[in-house]
Design brief:
Chain lengths: 162, 112
């Protein structure tokens, strides 16, 4: 970076953190992310189907999940695994696209698993960073679909709450 | 070319410029002095930031002052909130799925 200043405080840092404790062993919670049969059980909101649920859980492998809404609308999401350390840590990338479908941001998702007394603490840290030209090239033609997926999901949740 | 806040913050130098402006207005030269990159490169970043609506520049005599428009950043925070809700909803479903899987495993285990 071409800067002389040493500013640590960054108001434009973009991060999401979520922590969950599950009453389950961490091997199983880890598998919830890597076994397509298990991912299918939680990925789609209620009444959704996942006609495509492909996970190549290894470094460089891709995830491609297509949700189908009850009204038939297909919502695709894709990502790339960049780190897998069973049963402790999973890192995958996905992309935020603009209204025209061009990738805008790269989102680095780090999921960690720790177990204590049979309960598993799972954390998700999602860090949105600049999109690199290489990342642009690697996702060309890949239907990333996260915006659509997130919008649709919010819509469905609103429907459930009312 | 269409500009938006995500493009504005995509560059680390532009993030630093925004960080500098959080504490108050600075003139263009004060900002440029903080960087190793050329003055024209700084100007270019400033131009993008203003086009994205994150910085406004006002002239006072011969000085040009830059001011951060941080409310614009809420566009990013909104998206991050949506993203968070998206995962929280999924994790609720994961919790349910884990209960079902474990109940089933227990049942199957008892059969053996």
């Amino acid at each position: 970076m071409g800067t002389k200043s040493n500013l640590v405080d960054n108001p434009v840092r973009q991060e999401v953190n979520i922590t969950r404790i599950f009453d389950a062993p961490r091997e199983l919670v880890f598998k919830m992310w890597t076994d397509p049969e298990l991912v299918e059980k939680w990925w789609g909101p209620k009444d959704f189907k996942n006609p495509v649920c492909e996970l190549d859980a290894r470094v460089g492998g891709t995830m491609r999940i297509v949700m189908q809404a009850p009204d038939g609308l297909m919502i695709p999401t894709s990502g790339v695994f960049t780190e897998l350390l069973e049963p402790e840590r999973i890192v995958f990338k996905n992309f935020k696209e603009d209204d025209d479908g061009n990738a805008q941001l790269e989102v680095i998702n780090t999921v960690t698993f720790t177990e204590e007394n049979g309960k598993t603490t799972m954390t998700l840290n999602a860090l949105a960073v600049r999109i690199t030209p290489e990342a642009c090239a690697s996702i060309e033609g890949m239907n990333v679909g996260w915006n659509q997926s997130i919008d649709r999901f919010a819509y469905v949740l609103t429907g459930i709450n009312h | 070319m269409r500009r938006d806040v995500f493009q504005a913050i995509a560059d680390p130098n532009r993030r630093v410029i925004l960080s500098m402006l959080v504490t108050g207005k600075l003139n263009v030269n004060q900002v440029a002095d903080q960087f190793d990159i050329t003055r024209s490169a700084v100007s270019q970043h400033m131009k993008i930031l203003t086009e994205c609506g994150l910085v406004s520049i006002t002239k006072k005599g011969r000085e040009r002052y830059c001011e951060a428009k941080l409310d614009k950043l809420s566009e990013i925070w909104d998206w991050l909130n949506q993203y968070k809700k998206f995962w929280e909803g999924k994790f609720d479903a994961m919790e349910q799925a884990l209960k079902e899987i474990q109940a089933k495993n227990k049942k199957d285990g008892n059969k053996k």
